[in-house]
Write a structure and sequence with these properties.
Distance between the termini: 50 Å
Order of helices and strands: HHHEHEHEEHEHHEE
Helix content: 40-55%
Number of helices: 8
Largest sheet: 7 strands, mixed
Shape: globular
Strand content: 15-25%
Number of strands: 7
Strand order of the largest sheet: 3-2-1-4-5-7-6
Length: 263
């Protein structure tokens, strides 16, 4: 009996980053070994040992994070996705868009919850993530929702949809990754542009990090004045999620924020 195919959602910690760190570790270990074998310069050995130990720690740290966020391992990204979906106040009638769908894990989660909805995912699919349209479509087929899920290449700066096309929109940890646009507020406005009046939204990113978003609560108030019917901002959302305590310390998940409501 053949094993049932499994979806391949990838990981927040990219394989390329892990390979880079491991290569750096290997290089430093080689240098350290050469110094030990060829010289008695203990000062040089000590100097090389410090960065070697740091890189060794970083490698173990990244492996632990990668394992924790993996859908096949700790499943923490699934926990974050569920937190986002739980705050999407929508009846599931109509069309939903995910901005920055990656490998389609969140799009598919939405399709499974909202069984009458058609779910669309767009992503630029930069090379570093090893994702693509074919992978998204394959995952949707494996999960049995391919007839209601549609994927295409797109740009969060300029969504290729008319105003008020969708009944719901979601996005997870995407806007801060759009490197070619420092105006992150414009990305949120672009997402809300394609949402119908009265439609539902749930958007999560590093909204609490002032270096990226500035005074985000003030922006939320601006959205209210611009006509968003109902909007809630949950600052420090990482503290509200059922995540392990060690994942809630600065440097792992910090400054996470969620905005959700009705346009």
């Amino acid at each position: 009996m053949k094993n049932k195919a499994k979806a391949r959602y990838g990981n927040w910690i990219s394989t390329n980053l892990m390979i880079l760190v491991c290569n750096c570790l290997l290089l430093f270990l080689i240098v350290l070994l050469c110094l030990i074998v060829l010289t008695r310069g203990w000062l040089w050995i000590a100097l090389v040992s410090v960065p070697t130990a740091c890189i060794l720690f970083l490698t173990a740290y990244l492996y632990l994070l990668r394992r924790a966020f993996s859908f096949e391992g700790g499943g923490m990204m699934g926990v974050i996705h569920q937190f986002l979906v739980d705050h999407l106040n929508w009846d599931g009638k109509g069309k939903l868009l995910e901005v920055g769908c990656g490998s389609a894990a969140l799009t598919i989660r939405c399709a499974k919850k909202f069984k009458d909805a058609k779910c669309y995912g767009i992503d630029y699919w930069g090379a570093i993530w090893n994702y693509g349209q074919a992978l998204c479509e394959s995952n949707a087929k494996v999960e049995g929702v391919d007839e209601r899920c549609f994927f295409s290449k797109g740009d969060a700066n300029h969504l290729a949809f008319e105003d008020e096309t969708f009944d719901a929109v979601v996005s997870n940890f995407v806007y801060h990754e759009v490197r070619n646009n420092p105006d992150k507020y414009s990305l949120i406005r672009e997402t809300l542009r394609v949402l119908k009046k009265g439609g539902s939204f749930s958007l999560l990113d590093l909204f609490g990090q002032k270096s990226i978003y500035g005074d985000f609560p003030a922006f939320v108030e601006t959205l209210k004045r611009e006509g968003i019917t109902k909007i809630h901002y949950l600052a420090y959302s990482e503290k509200r999620m059922p995540l392990p305590r060690w994942m809630k310390i600065p440097g792992i998940l910090s400054g996470v924020g969620l905005i959700y409501g009705i346009k």
